[in-house]
Amino acid sequence: MPTVILDTDFLSAFLKIERLDLVRDLFRVEVVWIPPAVHREIAQTDLLTRLVDTEWLEVVAPDANLLSDLTQREAFQGLGAGEQECIALALRHPDAMLLTNDNKARQVAAQQGLAVVNIPAFLLACKRAGMADRASLEAIVRDLQDKDHYEFRQEVLKALLE
Asked: What is the distance between the alpha carbons of residues 71 and 60, in angstroms, rounded to a whole number?
């Protein structure tokens, strides 16, 4: 089983639509990690109660020395604290799966050899695993659009809903 790590954008989107359970179910894990910076970012929103109520989310700090070294690199300097901590945390776990929707963070993480997934890829994996049929995917897409203002490209919608 992978070590699943959530960035703020991914976490907040699935908290808003109340479908964070899909993450745990797809990866068949009992615990999902978030770094302290992600917790702080969510704590500043009205999603804090949902975050605290999700008992299987665990706040895990990245290695401080590794994080310090990474933040000296130019590519990491353009990332937010949550993205930086997620990548640093993932680098210490070879089986890590990082879920983030930030394009730059995904690019930097991939350059570091990390497995990284965005929302469309995650939903497609749920579909392929038989965890979400067309009706439930339509509801998830609609909720992400309405509650998180998430924009799907037409080719992504077609792949998800065909």
From this structure: 18
pLDDT for 130-159, tens place per residue? 999 999 999 999 999 999 999 999 999 999
pTM for the structure as a whole: 0.94
Lookup: tokens for 135 = 């009706």
Nearest partner of 6 among 133, 109, 144, 76, judged by Cα = 109
CB atoms within 10 A of CB 129: 13
Structure token pair of residue 50? 């949902």
d(CA 74, CA 32): 29
CATH of the structural domain 3-161, one choice from 2.40.50.100, 3.40.50.1010, 3.30.360.10, 3.40.50.300: 3.40.50.1010
